[in-house]
């Protein structure tokens, strides 16, 4: 749960930890809003995504939060190891 002031940004982070080595090319990372994939729109910078690969850390930032942004955000990570 995260609370931000109107107009501020909200940042969510997730870190993958594993006892085995992670092959990043096999990872599929998807941020979701009410269980629907959020896609990055080049015409709208509301959502920004990034990662720090060497730390296996992924983040999403919501710019200029407003009341209608109060929803459920999740991250879905899958690993295709064959």
Evaluate the radius of gyration: 14 Å
Strand order of the largest sheet: 1-5-4
Number of strands: 6
How many strands, which pairing sense, and closed or not: the largest β-sheet?
3 strands, antiparallel
Average of pLDDT: 89
Strand content: 35-45%
**Portion of residues within helices:** under 10%
From the N-terminal CA to the C-terminal CA, the straight-line distance is 34 Å
Could you state the order of secondary-structure elements as H and E?
EEEEEE
SS summary, helix count? 0
Please state the overall shape, judged from the principal axes of the Cα atoms: elongated
Residue windows where pLDDT falls under 50 for at least 5 positions? none
Helix vs. strand class: mainly beta
Describe the protein in words:
The N and C termini lie far apart (34 Å). The protein has no helices and six strands. A three-stranded antiparallel beta sheet has the order 1-5-4, with no helix packed on it. Helix content is 0%, strand content 41%. The model has no long low-confidence stretch (mean pLDDT 89). It has 82 residues and is mainly β. The chain has strands spanning 10-15, 27-33, 36-37, 47-52, 57-62, 73-79. The radius of gyration is 14 Å and the shape is elongated.
